[in-house]
Amino acid sequence: MAPAPLSVPATAPRATAHQRCPDRCQPDARRWWLALLVPGLLWLGSVRAADPAGDPLADRLATHLCLGEPSAAAAPDPPFRDWVAAFAHAARDCGISTTAVAALEGVTWQAQVARLDRNQPEYNSTFSGYLGRRIGAATLRQGQALRATHAALLANLEARYGVPAEILLALWAMESGFGANIGTTPILDALATLAYEGRRRDLYRRELLAALRILERGEATTLIGSWAGAMGQVQFMPSTFLAYAVDGSGDGRRDIWRSVPDALASAAHYLHRLGWQRDAPWLLEVELPADFDPYPAELDLPIASADWIAAGVRLAGGAPLPGQPAQAAMVLPAGMQGPAFLVYDNFHVLLEWNRSLFFGLAAGQLARELAGGPALVGSQPASEQPLRRAEVMALQQALNQLGFAAGPVDGMVGLGTRRALRAWQACHGLRADAWPTLALITRIHAQVPAATPAAAGIEQSAALPPR
User: Domains in the chain, start-ordered, CATH in brackets?
Assistant: First the structure.
């Protein structure tokens, strides 16, 4: 019997795409400003209940009020040392002690940090390439050995917070190689550099203030970590540390740098506060029937598990798909030619930890394998190749010019870009798997008039050195 068509929720905006474009594409021009507005609304909706260790929202508001709002008027940036002096003054106004603020006197500009912030190659990685760097035999062996070493600790954390050992081990591995690579960059230097001239200055101004609060409270004397400001074995940002780090060893300190119990307990507590559901799955690899329509495969479009089953979706390897939990969303990180996943509510908690889709999928798959689950069955598509940022920017420009709301032109294949690409594919009678390839980018650009900015973008992309 042929698989039944999927029952897509009628309330889903993308469920009506085929009805919107039965004969020709008629994208809604209003979607452009919606794409800019919705992320802000989603951020407001994602604020969670206050933690006993501190109220992150209240901290953000207090920081905003005491640091002030950046001037909208165009003005040249002051010299770095002058900026640091001004920030130190603002920090004292925020209530940071003179002793803690004095730590800024030794802050130095980090040119390498600024360069890394401007060019993050991870966003251009293929899924198979990313996964290959994250999951390997050595990582699995070490993770399983550490699971045995810390069995009592991990069992206690699961009993208290509901987070399974394999998830904590996977995040520990992904963030710092089980504590081996916590970073050596002075955190104050990194945060000051990024607050001074980074892409997200407001964020890093808040994080720099949070780092000073850590020093003020005596929870660390020297802060080191990654170039992006993340700290310790689980790579918490300073504000996350203040709100969610806990003492897992009972010594009265929250030492996520040197103490494994503190690091893992802090990770478990954070996931718990983000909404981790006890005894519930996070993802499953699945296989799709040959005639599967990938249009409903979208991260924020959960569909009844019974409907996935009726559509012919099975577990990778051919076993029947379980009917619980009741809903799941599908993710195709490499299109129809690559692996397919059903993801559940706990997967979205992993995305709260790190908003990279590839990170969440890799962490979830690594956790399954650390628990003795199967290795990935889906293979790398033969046509898979990394896209350059200029090529992705050209795609985003073209989709926006054609009326499909890809959102900001930032060179990163995020959910907005995939959603816009899926709509374009559906309107042109293609299998809408939202997987960007160079051939597809070229085809989309053929529809853009030569005088538009998008056409200029493809000319720039085409002028890059040959592959």
Answer: 49-68+77-123+188-221 (no CATH), 389-462 (1.10.101)
